[in-house]
Amino acid sequence: MPPTWHAASHPHSYQDPPPWHASRAGGHRYPYAAAVSVTPAPTATRPVAPPTATPTPPATPFPPGPPSKLGLFITRNDPEIFRLLETGNVALIKTLEHDAGFVTDLKKLSANTLIVGRPTFLGQADLDNMDPLAAARQFVEQLLPLATDERRRAAYAGWEAFNEPVPNSIEQMQRLAVFEAERTRLLGEQGIRSVVGNFGVGQPPLELWPHFFPALEAVRTHHGYLGLHEYSAPDIWFGTGKSQRQATADQADEGWLTLRYRKVYRNYLEPAGLAVPLLITECGVDGLVQNRPGPEGNGWRDFVDFWATDLGMGYDGAGNYIEQLAWYDAELRLDEYVAGAAIYALAASGGWESYELLGEAAQILHQYLSVHPPRG
After folding, report:
1. How far is CA 277 from CA 161, 226, 263, 269, in A?
2. I need a surface site. Which of 91, 162, 282, 352 has the fewest CB within 10 A?
3. Rounded Cα gap, residues 227 and 198, in angstroms
């Protein structure tokens, strides 16, 4: 049996990972600024020409491509959000900002962008002691005043509940499934859709998925979504394909962290007739995953030097990151059931600046989205 990586909720961790084998995918589209070269001083006494700087190669724009499945995780309003939405090609917005006017403006600017809300009034799920039916009713009572506002009702494609629950036993997973199924049913009766699961990277253990089927059956009935988080580090493809600690642990077109969703759908959901629409509601590079190669770090900005010095990817860190996201996007487009993937994060909360897309990364992402046709 292949090893399963069990990830906890921040910091992400997993047990018994396959050893890592260094590998990297593709080339780098955004060349780095080349170092200045200096002509050595001659020994003769004749005048010496001044040294000349090696010209910086121009950045190569992304070529046109099919509609993207990339989106944004946002925590607050920022003008850059609207600039990216103007491309007409942002698949998903996951937001912690629920101002009705704000989300209405998002939807007006990009009608085909899915907007998902995560309420901030929930703590972590106590899967050992929770009464799932009572907890579902309480959650719905708290959410309805927010979700039934007509402007929000028109804007949101679905609502999450617990963020990154960590079921580690059959009983815990069954309890979570009952909670998610009941709150999906109650909200569905009000015409409000749900995004269930919202498991952290590497979660849950694969063998527990059949015990989550009641929640997915409710999602299928009430036209909701499954939500998953997918991160990796030191680059976004570590743990996928041949990028393992051991060359013999090749995962083909699947992964233990990113692209883990393919293991879930192929081995569990599709055979059960439960291949419901999937939203990757958080994704990117996250150094909080454990048992990985590379230096200490959190968000993608902490790995820029490592990408340049150890992986030979050049010093254009922002370009390197968007290249990695473009690779992930190309993989997502191969799976019809994937509806979108929200990059963490644009306009991030305090303390999460190393994940921030604002600045050069957002500019390159804008160019990438602009050469893909608007979503229909």
Report:
1. 17, 6, 15, 11
2. 352
3. 4
Residues 6+ positions from 296 with CB-CB distance below 8 Å: 287, 302
Integer CA distances (angstroms), 331 to 31, 169, 327, in order:
23, 31, 7
What type of residue is 19? P
Question: What phi, psi does 225 have (nearest 5°)?
Answer: -140, 155
Distance, in Å, from the CA atom of 338 to the CA atom of 275, rounded to the nearest integer, reads 10
Report DSSP state, residue 74.
Answer: E
Spatial contact of 292 and 232, defined as CB atoms under 8 Å apart: yes
> Is the torsion defined by CA of 204, 206, 212, 215 positive or negative?
positive
Burial of 141 (0-12, 13-18, 19+ CB in 10 A): exposed
Sequence letter at residue 149: D
Q: Nearest 5°: phi and psi at 341? A: -145, 120
What DSSP state is assigned to residue 354?
G
CA–CA separation, 174 and 260 (whole Å): 21
Please, which residues have CB within 8 angstroms of residue 193's CB and are 6 or more apart in sequence?
156, 157, 158, 159, 187, 222, 223, 224, 225
Q: What is the pLDDT along the chain (376 residues), one digit of tens a residue?
A: 333 343 333 444 333 333 322 222 333 332 222 222 333 334 444 444 454 544 445 567 898 889 999 999 999 999 999 999 999 999 999 999 999 999 999 999 999 999 999 999 999 999 999 999 999 999 999 999 999 999 999 999 999 999 999 999 999 999 999 999 999 999 999 999 999 999 999 999 999 999 999 999 999 999 999 999 999 999 999 999 999 988 889 999 999 999 999 999 999 999 999 999 999 999 999 999 989 999 999 999 999 999 999 999 999 999 999 999 999 999 999 999 999 999 999 999 899 999 999 999 999 999 999 998 877 6
Rg (CA), the chain: 22
SS3 at position 340: strand
Coil, strand, or helix at residue 215?
A: helix
The one-letter code for the residue type at 26 is G
Strand intervals (E) in 257-317? 278-285
**Is 226 within 8 Å of 281 (Cβ atoms)?**
no
Q: Is the peptide bond before 204 cis (omega within 30 degrees of 0)?
A: yes
Question: Is 98 strand, coil or helix?
Answer: coil
